[in-house]
TrEMBL record:
Role description: mRNA cap-binding component of the eukaryotic translation initiation factor 3 (eIF-3) complex, which is involved in protein synthesis of a specialized repertoire of mRNAs and, together with other initiation factors, stimulates binding of mRNA and methionyl-tRNAi to the 40S ribosome. The eIF-3 complex specifically targets and initiates translation of a subset of mRNAs involved in cell proliferation. In the eIF-3 complex, eif3d specifically recognizes and binds the 7-methylguanosine cap of a subset of mRNAs.
Pfam families: eIF-3_zeta
Protein name listed in UniProt: Eukaryotic translation initiation factor 3 subunit D
Biased segments, Gly residues type: 126-156
Signal peptide span: none
Chief location category: cytoplasm
Composition bias type Basic and acidic residues, residue spans: 162-171
Gene Ontology biological-process entries: cap-dependent translational initiation; formation of cytoplasmic translation initiation complex
GO molecular function terms listed in the Swiss-Prot or TrEMBL record: mRNA cap binding; translation initiation factor activity
UniProt domain comment: The RNA gate region regulates mRNA cap recognition to prevent promiscuous mRNA-binding before assembly of eif3d into the full eukaryotic translation initiation factor 3 (eIF-3) complex.
């Protein structure tokens, strides 16, 4: 009869499973071999990759864990997208040199490039742009550098970067307002937190309406690149008065109409804050139980941005040496016409004049007067007024029925559509805006195609590029149109006559869109915008009476609330600076 004997059991005095390293039996063949984690699903591939340049030290057997196509330091990733088992742990097979190598210096500084077949093989990517290969960061197209698959762009030739790329990446934006060390920072909110807010708001209540509207000229809807029309300089007056200086808002505040008072330009920036890249600031004054959101004269609310959301947006010449921040760099007296500041002034000039030009002042059809005349036009004014209507509306931001948090906003419309109803009661109202093309081959163009060759045949591609490069600007225009209750938003496409001349422009085309439909295309959530406004309102209502400033960080997606003295932004230096900037805008417009 067969007998059975129990095997020898080696107890582990250190605790845990299995024998300890101190009393491992000698008959075990792997006694002095370190352990490496593995998985049965891993395939055995090459044992060593002499072409690996990833900087990893596990070049030997460890590279075989992921096989020829993954897991190891030189691999291209597993087919199933998973990392090789145990590849993140420290390898016992790694070689470490214990001697002092501080005196070692690398003589060969050539940049090596990785190709699919190794350093000496001629792989498929050898003729497709060097190191970047297919689908590189930039590839040259007919209209400059456009993303996508293609040949070798500037960043693909030999894998080198441009000689000025270090300056682009290291260049920092300056704040829209100088932050004094005496200011107290009260709150800080990151954009990713703002994007999660949500508040549903009902339709607004119309209070009063002011101004006169002219009808939109429908002939501008039939303009094509073959029948382009020159942009004219139209001498009209249009006011952009801040909240606290608005006499209508002062009267409404005296009657306790709402809790928060602002304008559509300021409110749209706050509602679209997560999309903003450029710095901005909002001055907030709390008086009693009321909040007033104001802008500074000559600040970012008086101009229009260009390609703010582009991957490589237009830049201004640096004023500080990046290698020595204490050293100032002399800025040329005549900046480039494609710098950020020059393009912003040009876009502001284009928007104003396109709005003035695209309405007809000669009846029929006749202009429409709102309930009351323009509240900012004084008796001493002699220049004609631009077509503009102001609608003062109240939105209820209360979360519960017992909560009384209302917002009064001054909205603007630029014209009305003949035959679409009575504009005095909000029918057929139109807002007019303009996109501008400066030079498709210039830095900061954002890969925009040539409008003269693409607008008529591939309008969708042009609009998609503008939605990508000017996401924040288009979102603000859309929100302003929705706040004003406009039925249509007219957008003109205006380009330079000569890319090297920023003083002459032509209208190439005009498109019409419904603001709510365009908001869906832009992925603009009004509920998220109202949630941001309510959060900022609650944040300010927790503070005592005084003056505050909400600043968007120039280089980070962060909002900060500062407490400032009551005399801030009212000094003589500020007024002189604002007047100087206003002269620059007038000079650019002329």
């Amino acid at each position: 009869m067969a007998s059975f004997s129990l095997p020898e059991i080696h107890d582990n005095p250190d605790g845990g499973w299995g024998p300890s390293s101190s009393n491992l039996p000698a008959q075990f063949k792997f006694k002095d071999i370190p352990y490496a984690p593995y998985s049965k699903s891993d395939k055995l591939g090459r044992f060593a990759d002499w072409n690996d340049i990833s900087g990893g030290q596990n070049v030997g057997l460890a590279s075989a864990q992921g096989g020829a196509r993954g897991g190891g330091p030189g691999g291209r990733g597993r087919r199933d997208g998973q990392q090789a088992f145990g590849s993140g742990t420290a390898s016992a097979f790694a070689y470490f040199h214990a001697e002092d190598e501080s005196s070692f210096s690398l003589v060969d500084t050539k940049t090596s490039t990785t190709r699919r077949g190794g350093a000496l093989s001629r792989g498929r990517n050898a003729g497709r742009g060097g190191a970047m290969g297919r689908g590189g960061a930039q590839s040259r197209g007919r209209g400059g550098f456009t993303p996508g698959r293609g040949g070798g762009g500037a960043a693909q030739r030999g894998g080198r970067r441009g000689w000025r790329d270090w300056e682009k990446n290291n260049r920092a934006r300056e704040s829209s307002v100088a932050i004094s060390p005496e200011w107290d920072m009260l709150e800080e909110i990151e954009f990713h937190r703002l994007s999660k807010l949500r508040l549903e708001v009902d339709d607004p209540e119309d209070l009063e309406s002011y101004g006169r509207l002219f009808p939109y000229d429908k002939t501008y809807d039939r303009i094509t690149t073959r029948t382009e029309k020159p942009l004219q300089l139209v001498d009209r007056i249009k006011y952009n008065t801040t909240t606290s200086d608005d006499p209508v808002i002062q009267e409404l505040a005296s009657r306790d109409t709402a809790t928060v008072y602002t304008t559509d330009a300021i409110l749209s920036v706050l509602m679209c804050a997560p999309r903003s890249v450029n710095p901005w600031d909002i001055v907030i004054v709390r008086t009693g139980n009321k909040l007033f959101f104001d802008k500074r004269d000559g600040g970012p609310f008086d101009t229009v941005t260009v390609n703010e959301n582009a991957a490589d947006p237009p830049q201004d010449p640096p004023t500080v040496n990046p290698n020595n921040p204490n050293e100032k760099i002399a800025v040329p007296e005549a900046p480039s016409i494609n710098s950020a500041t020059s393009l912003s002034l040009e876009a502001t000039y284009i928007n104003q004049n396109f709005g003035f030009q695209s309405v007809t002042e000669t009846p029929p059809p006749p202009p429409v007067d709102f309930e009351k005349p323009n509240p900012f036009y004084g008796t001493e004014e002699t220049e004609p007024l631009a077509s503009c209507g102001y609608r003062y509306r109240v939105f209820d931001l209360g979360i519960t029925e017992d909560e009384d948090v209302k917002l009064c906003v001054r909205t603007e419309v630029d014209g009305y559509l003949p035959g679409a109803g009575n504009p005095s009661v909000g029918q057929g109202l139109v807002t007019i805006r303009a996109l501008n093309e400066f030079d498709p081959r210039a830095a900061g163009a954002g890969g925009a195609p040539d409008w003269r060759s693409k607008l008529d045949s591939q309008r969708g591609a042009v609009v998609a590029t503008e939605m990508k490069n000017n996401s924040c600007k288009l979102a603000k225009w859309t929100v302003q149109s929705v706040l004003a209750g406009a039925e249509l938003m007219k957008i003109g496409f205006i380009s330079r006559v000569n890319p090297r001349d920023n003083t002459r422009h032509v209208i190439l085309s005009t498109t019409s869109t419904r603001p709510m439909d365009f908001a869906v295309q832009l992925n603009v959530s009004l509920a998220n915008g109202w949630g941001i406004v309510r959060t900022v309102t609650d944040m300010c209502m927790k503070q005592p009476e005084g003056k505050y400033v909400l600043i968007k960080d120039p280089n980070k997606p962060v909002l900060r609330l500062y407490a400032v003295p009551m005399n801030a932004f009212t000094g003589d230096d500020e007024e002189d600076e604002a007047g100087f900037e206003g002269e620059d805008v007038d000079a650019a417009a002329s």
